[in-house]
Amino acid sequence: MSLFEDFISLIYPRVCLACGNSLFKNEEIICTSCMLHLPKTNYHLEKDNPVSKTFWGRINIETATAYYHYKKGGKVQHLIHRLKYQGYKEVGIFIGKQYGNELMKSRYFNTIDTIIPIPLHNKKQRKRGFNQSEMFAIGLSKSMNATLDTKSIFRAVATETQTRKTRFSRWENVSDIFKIKDAEKLKGKHILLVDDVITTGSTIEACVNILFNIPEVKISVAAIACPIN
Questions:
Q1: Beta-bridge mates of residue 155
Q2: Cα–Cα distance between 54 and 95 in angstroms, integer?
Q3: CA-CA 20 to 30 A from 114: which of 106, 176, 210, 218?
């Protein structure tokens, strides 16, 4: 680190976005301690894991996974809040790179061709300035050497927030909101559909139902986090 960078770090200290402690020179975004102790699920190593079972009887996907467990007030929820509401895009990209490296070691995810983030409606994306799921997808695509596709699927209808809705209300809220622009280029691909958090899976379900209009596709799902069961 240069003298100038040392000076800047005194004014704007580099801190871990999970715990708030100062970062060492060789650390970025998340400190080594948090990297070691954040609650990973390891669901990518098990086809019939709890996230995958969320979709049983609803949609016919290959499998599903999430990188971390989260709980209210915990460090993972704090990271997602930093990404989603405080504009720390680098959180999503960094976590995506890390998880992509792990997914490439899994036989369930190492054949991914295309990564598609769950799209936001244009109105919401303009207000927020970015799509948090796209940041995660950017990181995944870099470490998985897969194509990032943010154009083929779009959200045609703006919906209410899913917070505090029941499972059925969430499904009603998103059941017919996604459309496909260019189905032909996705034909025969193994698609990884990604979101920031999976709870009931209603938004994922709605998007998968649209993707299954494309011939010969296989669809897997990944998220940054899921609740602790």
A1: 178
A2: 23
A3: 176
SS (H, E, C) 142-208: HHHCCEECCCCEEECCCCCCCCCCCHHHHHHHHCCCEEECCCHHHCCCEEEEEEEECCCCHHHHHHH
pLDDT tens digits, residue range 11-25? 457 999 999 999 998
The verdict on domain 39-227 having CATH code 3.40.50.2020 is: yes
Residue whose C-alpha is closest to residue 81's, from 173, 163, 168 = 163
pTM score > 0.85 for this model? yes
Q: What is the CA radius of gyration of the chain?
A: 18
Question: Taken in order 51, 224, 83, 207, is the CA torsion positive or negative?
Answer: negative
pLDDT, one tens digit per residue, over 188-223 is 999 999 999 999 999 999 999 999 999 999 999 999
